[in-house]
Each structure stands twice: as C-alpha cells, then as structure tokens.
Amino acid sequence: MTATDTPTVNAALALGDDALILSHRLGEWAGHAPELEEEVALANIALDLLGQARFLLSMAGDEDEMAFLREERSFRNLQLVEQPNGDFAHTIARQLYFSLYQHELHTDLAAGDGPFAGLAAKAVKETAYHRDHAVQWTLRLGDGTEESRRRMRAALDALWKFTGEMFQPVEGLDGIDWAVLEGRWLTALTGVLEQAGLAVPEGPRTGAWAAGAGRQGLHTEPFGRMLAEMQHLHRSHPGASW
Amino acid sequence: MTQNWPLWEVFVRSRRGLSHTHAGSLHAPDAEMALRNARDLYTRRSEGVSIWVVPSAEVTASSPDERDPFFAPAADKPYRHPTFYDIPEGVSHL
Amino acid sequence: MVAVTPESGQDSGLGADLGAQLAAAFDAAVAADERVEPRDWMPEEYRASLVRQMAQHAHSEIIGMQPEANWITRAPSLRRKAILMAKVQDEAGHGLYLYSAAETLGTSRDELLDKLHSGRQKYSSIFNYPTLTWADVGAIGWLVDGAAITNQVPLCRCSYGPYARAMVRICKEESFHQRQGFELLLALSKGTPEQHAMAQDAVDRWWWPSLMMFGPPDDESAHSAQSMAWRIKRHSNDELRQRFVDIAVPQAETLGLTLPDPDLKWNEERGHYDFGPIDWAEFWDVLKGNGPCNEQRLSQRRRAHEEGAWVREAAAAYARKHAAAPAAAARNEEARV
C-alpha cells in the first residue's frame, strides 16, 4: 500500500508523524498519571494514535525505517505534539487543541474520496473519544479548584502559539478548506473554554518559528532529545529485527 | 480527604441480547467520568456494547448479612430450577 | 462487589454459641469449596489475611508497571512499542481489579495506597530489580509473568469470591503477557550475536529472582499453612516453584538460551527437574528494602500520587459543584467498539 506520489507521501508523513509523536509523549505518562483510572485512559489514547501512525507511516515506506531512521529535520509533525508533557494541565491543553483539530480534519477526510478517507473513517471514532476525554478534563480543571484553574489557564496560554500551524495547508490533503476548518476549530474550542469558565488565550497563534515550521521539518529543542531516546536502541543495532 | 473519588459499580452488556452483568468497580469523581473510566477499563478488549455505572453507596442489598435466613425459602422451591426436571436423553435445545 | 463495611459478627457481642456456630459453618463452607462473599461472616484473621494478600498483589501490579514502562519510550519497533504500552496498561487495569476486590472487605484504595507509600505494605520484591536492557522486557514477560501465572491460576479458585473473579479476568489477560515476552526473547535469541547476548544476559539476571517469587520454602513460610486451610492458597510455595521450573526448562531450550543453574537436570525418579540452591539471603535482603531499586520504585510511586493530588482534588470539586444531576440514576452509553 506504499504510496508513490510525492504529495500523498508528504501528507502521510505529516499526519503519521503527528500521531506517532503525540503517542510517544502520552506513553511517557505510564506510571506517572494522577490516578490509576487515568493511566488506563491515557494509554488507550496513545495506543489509538500509535495505530494510526503505523498505518500512515506504512503508506510512506517501512514503518520502522520511517520512525527510527529519519533525522529530526525530516519529521513533519506539528510542533504542538512534540511539546513536553509538563503537568497534567499542559497535557490536557495539548490534547484539547490537537484532538479538536484532528477530529475536524478526520471528519473532512472521511467525507472525501482521497487516499486517507478509509483511515479517517476509522480514526474519526477514536478522535471523537480523544476529544471527549480532553473536553471532560478541561471542564474539570477549569471549573475545579483555584489551583487547577490557574494551571489550566497557564497551559492553554503556553501552548497557544503552536496552534496556528495546524491550519497551514498540507500538500496532498486535497479538498480541505483550511480556513473553514480553522473556523470550526475555533468555534468548538471557544464553546468548551466558555463552559469551563476559561478565556480563549490572546496573542498570536503564529510566528516566524511556529507557522508551518514543524510541517517543514523545523522543530523545537525538546524534540531532538525525545527522538534520541526513541531511536537510540533501534539505531544501535543496524539491520537487526526485533 | 475531599480529594477521594467515590466508588462506582460497573455493569457491562457484553453483546446485544444479553443483560448487563456486574463487571467490577472503579473510582471516579462523577458519573460522566465513571462511564468513561469503565469503558477504558472493562471494555478495552471489546468486551461490551453498553455500560451502566451506579454509585456503590446507592446499592441497597437484600440483607446486611447473608447468614440471614433471607434466602432460605428459595431452597424449598426446587421446581424453579431447570435441574429439577428429568429430560430423556437425546432431547436437545431445551 | 459492594464495598460496604460488613457487619461481621465475631466481635459484636454475639453469644459464644453463635460465634462457634458461625466459625463451624464457615469452615464447612470453605471445606466444601463454596465461595465466601463480602457480606458473609468470616473469621477476622481470614479477612486480614485476604486484605494483606490482595493489597500486596495490587501493589505489585502498579509498581510492576515501572520497570517495563522504563522501555516504552525506547522500544525498538513500533509493533513492540504498541505491545508494551498495552501490557503496561493491562497492569494498571489489574491493579484496579485487585484494589476493587480488596475494597469489598471494607478497606479503601486510599488506605491501601497510603500503606504502600509509607512502606507498611509490601509489593513483590521482583520489581526491585532493574530493567537494564531491552531484553529485560522479554525476560519479565517470560519468567516473571510466567511465575506469576503459575502462582495465580490456582487463585482463580480461591475461596474469596471477589478475589477469585478478579483473578479469572487477570489470568485471561496475563497469558498475552507471557507470550509476548517469549516471542520477544526468541526474536533476540535468533537475531544478531549482540541481540542473542542481550537475551542471555537478561535470563541470567532474572532466573533466580523469578524462582524467589514463589516465596520462602514451605517450612519457613509464615502464612502458608493457614492460607491453604482457608483455600486462599491451593498449593505450597515449593510445589508451585517446581511446577514453574518444569515448564520453563524446555521453553528455554526452544529459546536457545541457557538457564544459569549448573545443577539443573532431569530427575527420572522424581519426574521433575532438580535445581540448585536458592540464595535466600538475597531474597530477605531485597525484601528488607536493600534491593537495587526499592527506593526508586517507591519514590516514583509517591511522587506520581502527590503530583496528581491537585488533579484529583479538581475533579472532586467539580463533581461537588455539579452534583445537581440525580446521582443515583444509572447512565447508559453505547460504548465504542
């Protein structure tokens, strides 16, 4: 099923890397979650994303070569998903921004007839659950205690600058109206934050380093260390099978 | 200890046509989260199509202590149980 | 499984006659292989023994997540990464099943966690050993989970209903754990010389601690005899250990790996494998807290709990604010399949 045309490969890498990198970050929570029930929930989301990543990276080539043998500059994921977990509020803010986006995007892709329609049709059910998880926690942290509200607000603010990148057109994803997608995302986000008693962050959502940068292989510093950890073992044994 | 989450009993319908069966329990701050946690925990291998959650504190049991003779009369009515009836060999689907 | 503190009769001013009658009825029921349920009368020592065992078992599941989670971010293929994540998730799930079962005896999870965090309750010592290489993930699956399954399968028939039911669920899921470990080691053993050496090294380090998982020899085991009489336990430590060795030896041959015991050989007369003496000094030392990872495991566990406090508190506060909805109404949801 490896795609040969460059735009499709490009889009498969963009979507696949988003899923892979976010799954990896969520995997870092294992053994550290605030409650046992939440260990199970975060792992479920990480596993869904990893499943999506494997499918998408296989469209671009061998999934393990794609994951373990590319250099940092070849990764096409959004800078948002590579951001470190931070406290639970940062993880939830990242989940909220991303899952609202991913759900809207998958909905559009599933409605079309492009090479990602099949994956999106399956993934849209998963992302609906991821979105729900993020929304439920945003409500609880926003409308919980003083401390949780303060932390949630700080997290939303800190990650805000990475959200503009999500709506830069991705080559190979045809039929997406990115401006409309962004409008839907913002409407959905505003609704959730209002219900949680939180304000939509202010300030620019794009900048010289955040506007489409991840999609072009420009990442933030923590990403290099994350990749070093992820790839080290695989790279230490060239050609080995596992 | 206001941070303690209450206990919930979880009932899962494993497939259509069957009734909900007690699967176990879990902790959650409220019903919405209890449902989600139950889905993650008790149906992560596709074991269910529908879930109920009930606060454990809301369950009223038939007797505070099962050594109570509450259940004794049932033993007097063996005809309620299918094993009461002798069925000739070779009869199936009964 | 309702966690209501049962009104147990033994200290509530029952007449001596009734007390003796209850004890006799309990013993008879257990001897007849009946299941004991949460609200039944039970001897206080039976209750205490069960809570201790279930708590230790639950603690082992959640502490046991750590040595394996240590490799999730470094798994060498995406397939292995998915398997390992699912496995560590299962362990959290098993911990949850077991805490639930323990709660039916009137001890809350918070109380149990508090005892774990303060060192008043133990978890399996095996998790105080470090996972130094990727092959350790395989050795844990094959040997540690293998030993655990040998221990746990008989617990599916344990006299205490909620524990037995939790174990049925757990055992079903555990067999996947052992198989993935075996398969992982097989891939390494048949791989490059470096991979093979990694697998052998892991088996060398995990073999003896795995044998210690069955507990001290029968004549030195503090709770064994009573637990067997109560049918909490069905087989002695030494019996189960022997069963595990007998299963593991041929599997090691299939793997092409050597078990680090020069005395290991088939005994025709006994119909079992003989094996060398276990270093019980090491066992007691690790149990006392002097293992390579005791402090690390407990402090990570405590830190996760403490750092999660504000999150749990926020959700509880939210629930109080929004408690207007009728709490008793059962909610129904079509689960995603």
Architecture overview:
Chain A has helices at residues 6-27, 36-60, 63-68, 79-82, 88-111, 117-142, 146-160, 178-195, 221-236. Chain A is mainly α and 242 residues long. The longest helix of chain A has 26 residues, at 117-142. The mean pLDDT of chain A is 95. The longest helix of chain B is centred in the middle third of the chain and has 12 residues, at 31-42. A three-stranded antiparallel β-sheet of chain B has the order 2-1-3, covered by helices on one side. A two-stranded antiparallel ribbon of chain C has the order 1-2. The chains are: A mainly alpha (242), B alpha+beta (94), C mainly alpha (337). At the A-C interface, helix 1, helix 2, helix 3, helix 6 and helix 7 of A face helix 3, helix 4, helix 7, helix 12 and helix 13 of C.
Brief account:
The complex is a heterotrimer of chains A (242), B (94) and C (337). Chain A has 242 residues and is mostly helical.
- Largest contact between chains: A-C, 53 and 49 residues
Q: What do the pLDDT scores of chain A average to? A: 95
The number of distinct β-strands of chain A equals 0
Major beta sheet summary of chain A: none
Number of strands of chain B: 3
- Count structural domains of chain A: 1
Number of helices of chain A: 9
Secondary structure elements and pairings:
The complex is a heterotrimer of chains A (242), B (94) and C (337).
Chain A: H1 6-27, H2 36-60, H3 63-68, H4 79-82, H5 88-111, H6 117-142, H7 146-160, H8 178-195, H9 221-236
Helix pairs in contact in A: 1-2, 2-6, 5-6, 5-7, 5-8, 6-7
Chain B: E1 7-13, E2 21-27, H1 31-42, E3 50-55
Antiparallel strand pairs in B: 1-2, 1-3
Chain C: H1 16-31, H2 44-63, H3 65-69, H4 78-103, H5 109-117, H6 135-152, H7 161-189, H8 193-212, H9 224-229, H10 237-255, E1 265-267, E2 272-274, H11 280-290, H12 294-307, H13 309-321, E3 331-334
Antiparallel strand pairs in C: 1-2
What structural keywords apply?
heterotrimer; A: 242 residues; mainly alpha; Ferritin; 64% helix; B: 94 residues; alpha+beta; three-stranded antiparallel sheet; 1 helix; 13% helix; 21% strand; Ferritin-like_SF (chain C); 1,2-phenylacetyl-CoA epoxidase subunit PaaA (chain C); Aromatic_CoA_ox/epox (chain C); PaaA_PaaC (chain C)
